Amino acid sequence: MNVNSGNIENFAEFSQFESIQQFNHHMEQWMLGHKDDFTKGELVGLKRLVRFAAKIPGVCNAKIGTVVAAIHKEYNDNGISRSTFKRMLSKAKTLGIFTVHETERKNGSQSSNLYVFNRFPSSEPPKEEIMDQPKETNNLLKTEKDQMNNKRKEEPLAAELDHTYVRSRVPKPFVELVKYFYSEAKTIEEYWHMTQIAAYYNSSQNRKEVVLELAIESFKQLIRKIKFTNAVRNPFAYFYGVLDRKLHHRYQRDVFEKYGHTY
Q1: Residue 51 and residue 122: Cα distance in Å, rounded?
Q2: Cβ contacts of residue 12 below 8 Å, gap of 6+?
Q3: What pTM was estimated for this model as a whole?
Q4: Are strands 2-4 and 114-117 parallel, antiparallel or unpaired?
């Protein structure tokens, strides 16, 4: 999609965020899910591009040369190369962190690109594969012999690691609860991964007891919802949404108790 170039204010309609705080929160979630996909230099370039997208939250039309020059100035001529910045752009675009639109001047010549940062997809868990989902039965037309042969080939790799293999970073009380409903180690770890993202988003990552308490409450609420209704299409997303609200409300309550008001 081509758009006419101009001042950044002309692109306000492209912004997906209501405020710079909301933009920053979504970028924090993107980084939690995909930070390891970038090199150190590429991360420097991405963070600088984010800063250029502050005037209109999530929208930037700075030239590559301008961004790279700003990085060199900040790091006393020890910045990153233009090629490193371009590799970052390619990775971030592929991951969906932002969308790139080509812009053109009034005379039709190409101008700097427009970078429109996207909201973190709260309906999907970050990066790591979704576990414990039913597989489609797509081999009904195969012969019984073929199925048996395939089963024998897959058996050595098919066994899932149970809850006893969960990483030590996941609190035991959380494991003890979740294992009764999802016994696979990866599934339990994925729910805790969602907990860490929600805690980071609500500035609660250093309040481990509170996070654990609310994560357990949120998971119980998820199970109740699943047992009594058919409305939960994505358990990970539902769990995250419930926990996010609980952490936000707890933060507001604590601020009120301490200062007598909320933000």
Answers
A1: 23
A2: 56, 59
A3: 0.47
A4: unpaired
Domains belonging to the chain, first-starting first, are: 2-117 (1.10.10), 154-259 (no CATH)
Predicted confidence at residue 137, as pLDDT, reads: 31
**pLDDT tens readout for residues 69-110:** 999 988 877 789 999 999 999 999 998 899 988 877 666 566
Average pLDDT estimate for 197-217: 84
Question: Do the beta carbons of residue 145 and residue 183 sit within 8 Å?
Answer: no
- Over residues 103-124, the mean pLDDT reads 74
Q: Which amino acid is at 67?
A: V
